[in-house]
Design goal:
Length: 192
């Protein structure tokens, strides 16, 4: 079984225990996935203190809303990352951080947040591998879809804001995003 499959199984098993109010499982979930969630947040807000605060809020919300989780809709990590992304975008917009953003490229995204003192080298290697897989998948998208995904996920722009920025119809943005997400899902499904 690949490292990514083990992680997916671990997340599902921990979530099943969390749904039975197992606080130890919640601690294990946090220990294992907090760096992944943090990486999503820091790529949006670009402020370590804000990112730490959002990370804590996300995990508190995750625990408080655990009974709303549906295994048939997404993986626990996807659910958590979606919460993190939405919370980070809300914070980004409320603080009007956009002027401080320097890059929309995943290639230029900082990776220092992935290295934590005392981190298990295997965890670091898995995170590096995930980042490499995502970068590779993004590069396989057509240029117009890459741009849509990068500004949506790394700058936190809404579909309407993307349409306005690039002077393209909102329907075109939605179509490109849908096609890009489907293609990324297909590309990453087997490896993650």
């Amino acid at each position: 079984m690949s490292g990514m499959s083990r992680e997916a199984n671990l997340a599902r098993n921990l979530m099943a225990r969390i749904l039975r109010n197992d606080t130890k499982a919640f601690g294990e979930l946090y220990d294992h996935f907090n760096r992944v969630v943090y990486s999503v947040i820091i790529n949006i807000v670009r402020n370590p203190r804000e990112a730490e605060e959002i990370l804590q809020e996300v995990f508190v919300t995750f625990w408080n809303k655990r009974n709303e989780y549906d295994f048939s809709k997404s993986s626990p990590v996807t659910w958590m990352v979606t919460m993190a992304r939405n919370r980070a975008i809300d914070k980004f917009r409320s603080n009007e951080f956009r002027g401080a953003m320097h890059s929309t490229s995943i290639d230029d995204a900082p990776t220092s947040f992935l290295t934590v003192a005392g981190e298990n080298p295997l965890d670091g290697a898995l995170l590096d591998e995930k980042q490499r897989l995502v970068q590779s998948a993004l590069k396989q998208l057509p240029q117009d879809q890459q741009i849509i995904i990068r500004v949506a996920y790394f700058e936190g722009l809404s579909q309407s804001e993307i349409a306005e920025r690039y002077s393209i119809p909102l329907g075109t943005v939605k179509t490109r995003m849908r096609l890009a997400i489907k293609k990324l899902y297909d590309l990453l499904r087997e490896t993650m």
